[in-house]
Amino acid sequence: VTPAAEGVVDACCHPIPVHAGDLNARLPRQYRDQRLPPPLGGVWANPVNDYLPEARQAEGGLPGSDPANLYEQVLVRQDADFAVLVPLARGLLADPQVGVALDRATNEWLAETWLGEHNRQDRYRGSIRVSPRAPIDAVAEIARWADHPGFVQVAVPLESNVTYGDPMFLPVWEAAADRGLPVVVHSDHAGGVHGAPTPLGYPLTYLEAYTQTAFAALAHLASLIAHGTFERLPRLTFVFADGGFDYLQTLIWRVDKDWRSGRAEVPWVDRTPSGYLADHVRFVVHAGDGEGDPEAYAEFIELNGLEPCLLYASNYPHWDHLDAAQLRSMLTPAQRTSILGGNARVLYGLPVMQRGAT
Amino acid sequence: MAVTLNEATRQTEATESVPVTLVDCDAHPAPAGKEELLQFMPKRWHYLEKAPVGVPYRLDVVNDGARVDARPKDFALGMAGADPELFRRQLLEQAGVDFVVLIYHTSQNIPAPDADAARCSAINEWMAAYWLERYNDHGRYRGSIRLPMHNPSAAVAELDRWADHPAFVQAMAVGSYSPAFGHPAYEPIFRAASERGLPFAIHPANWPIVEPSAVGPWTYFFEWHSQAAPTAYTSHMASMVCNGLFERLPDLKVVFVEGGLSWSHALANHLDRNWARLKAEVPALTLAPSEYLRRQTLFSTQPAEEPPNPDALVQILDRMGGRDRVMFATDYPHFDYDDPRTALPRAMGDDLRRQIMCETARALYGLPRTRAVAA
Asked: CA-CA distances (angstroms) from residue A73 to A19, A80, A111, A322?
């Protein structure tokens, strides 16, 4: 393996507008005075820090808003060739039309700034934000940006009042699959009308809420499989970007087990549910994932065949940042190649950079 | 407590006895017709039992989710688990179970706390009168004290009422109560169970009040049946740990029934890592979350996860310190009944198998090493 092929790809980092109100100026006139929930707002305050201390901006801009900082702290410090940018939305806004307007504003902002003026080296890739509960608008937004060379996937919130296998969402996933765009699911960690983040309501601590956020991806994943989504859309890939691959893996065994006795109900599901993972599902690795012991960490991935499914991400500028060097130290040489960059390169069609050429 | 009954069992050892090798931690007797339960309930609540209960999935309609051969022929109700003779024959004789921990079959809670308390109370009286006394001449049934979690004073009273009964060996509630069980409103109940030396079992709920997903309803039976219990148990477990319940009640044992187990190791890893950075929020914790879980939580096997490589399950058991935290269960008479002869993967080996099939439950529930052979 040449050093070039081992270049890191950061599959999920979060650029943020300089000021919380910046996107309002891009909204249609009737929504400009809309009060948007702040980024990382919601029920709990992180008792320690929402953002990496070094991501804070001297001039009062939001963390993650300064191009020079993000370049230095993501691309340079992680020695990454590319960073895939996933701007977060603000949770499920009460009026879905405001959510649609915010999606459009976010995509225009991302195209002008991070995929435009900040992207002279062509090392950023972006995500098209859509609202799946407004499927017609979501399909139109995908069509609007799909040919833009900087957008490589479609981004939707983890938060939903309906699991993502529901047929109402199928046109959105179809539009993404037809364009060869993966769909990334990431929590907005924001307020809005979604309600509690756990099956049993609002937890009492941030520690519980934060720990369980990623686990909600399981219900979306099982729903997508149960409804036959991947059978209908063989080119579709879902990327679950909140972490938790270890938790999801153990519960997919259970989904497999119940599918064996319950498959009469879903005759269109042709494979064991876990059999869809390698072809259709990717998990972004988070700092809280996996075994604490490095040997056990790599072994779990190996034993469960997860190597093709995992993508490294910095999660910059959030507090739960994962350092590429830290992940590298937990992986076998083969896993390093695929998980730190190879898998993302294939998924997003990224070229191999001649390192040191710039 | 259980000592009395065990002493009674031991006295018969003089005649003829066999070693105890198989304990079933989750089997479900049912009343033979509604009247059998209603006789223990105040009349004002009888109308609640009229509500027909159904599962909104096509699949579960088949035989009400029960083993086809477990449905009795002699009762008007016809509910699986209601025929004591069939129950005894299939579980004690055919499956060869030495002791059975019984959990009442119907699993949803009633939203009104006073009605829920009346129903739990009736369930306990019924279980004591029928399954722990009338049908228990062999002394091989043990019971679970069902508790109304949204009615803490009634729940504690119910614990007081039954704690000295020799055959009730644990407290029990369904898992569908919200908020999760680390909320301080529940603490008097857990404290009372802990002080009386009773383990606390959580069993999944059944329709119409079930554990939901965090992102919308389950569409298919297998989605619900595979995810509802483990994801709700995840919330309960995180809640009990993070809010200091295990710190304040170090002797409390909580048994997570019918929800699998390997996910709990992933949860413990996440909690440990996140706690390391968020300690400031939960100053009451003096141990890492995984240490409380290791010390105070147990699991029943049915339905254990079945990874394609069975070694993966054994490895997780070892890493989570789980060899003495897992107890065999059949879930008789339900359709996904686990046969003790085939339930565990061969990869487990004899020592671990013995631990799971018998020893952990025997110690937790204070069961004897031998039992009398049926006359």
From this structure: 20, 10, 21, 12
Taking the C-alpha atoms of residue A274 and residue B308, their distance in angstroms, rounded to an integer, is 10
**Token output for A47:** 């008792």
β-pairing, B168-174 with A281-284?
unpaired
User: Under the phi-then-psi rule, with left for phi > 0, alpha for psi from -120 to 50, and beta for the rest, what region is A109?
Assistant: alpha
Q: Does B284 touch chain A (CB under 8 A)?
A: no
pLDDT digits (tens, 9 = 90+) for B334-371: 988 899 988 888 888 999 999 999 999 999 999 999 99
Cβ pair B273, A288 in contact under 8 A? yes
Which positions ≥6 away from B74 have C-beta within 8 Å?
B83
- Taking CA–CA distances from B310, the nearest residue in chain A reads A303
pTM: 0.95
Q: What residues of B are in contact with residue A251 (Cβ under 8 Å)? A: 226-227, 230-231, 260, 263, 305
A165 and B219 within 8 Å at the Cβ level: the answer is yes
Q: Does B235 contact A199 at a Cβ distance shorter than 8 Å?
A: yes
β-partners of residue B17 are B372
C-alpha torsion B155→B188→B260→B146, nearest 10: -10
Cβ B227–A255 below 8 Å, yes or no? yes
The DSSP bridge pattern shows strands B17-19 and B370-372 to be antiparallel
- In 3-state terms, what secondary structure has residue A252? helix
Beta-ladder partners of B142: B101
CB atoms within 10 A of CB A317: 27
Residue A23 contacts B where some CB pair is shorter than 8 Å? no
Are A115 and A151 contacting, i.e. CB atoms less than 8 angstroms apart?
yes
| B260 near A CB under 8 A | yes
As for the ipTM of the complex, it is 0.95
Q: Give the gap in angstroms from C-alpha B168 to the nearest C-alpha of chain A.
A: 28
Tell me the chain A residues in contact with residue B211 when contact means C-beta distances shorter than 8 Å. Answer: 199-200
SS3 B186: helix
Please report which residue ranges of B127-186 form alpha helices under DSSP H.
152-162
With an 8 Å Cβ cutoff, are A48 and B277 in contact? Answer: yes
Which of B149, B211, B215, B292 would best serve as a mutation to test chain A binding (most A beta carbons within 10 A)? B215
Render pLDDT for A38-87 as a digit per residue (tens, 0 to 9).
777 777 888 888 888 888 877 778 888 999 999 999 999 999 999 999 99
Q: How many CB atoms within 10 Å of residue A334?
A: 13
* Structure tokens belonging to residue B215: 């992102």
Written as six digits, the tokens of B337 are: 């009944």
Size of interface A-B (CB pairs under 8 A): 223
Distance from C-alpha of B237 to C-alpha of B23, rounded to nearest angstrom: 25
Q: How far is C-alpha A117 from the chain's CA centre?
A: 23
Out of B59, B272, B280, the one facing A47 most closely (by C-beta) is B280
User: B108, B208 in Cβ contact below 8 A?
Assistant: yes
Tens-digit pLDDT profile for residues B125-140 = 999 999 999 999 999 9
Residue B158, Cα to own-chain centre: how many angstroms? 17
Using N-to-C axis directions, what is the helix angle for B262-278 and B289-296, rounded to 10°?
140
Torsion over CA: A295, A300, A306, A310 (sign): negative
> Beta partners for B372?
B17
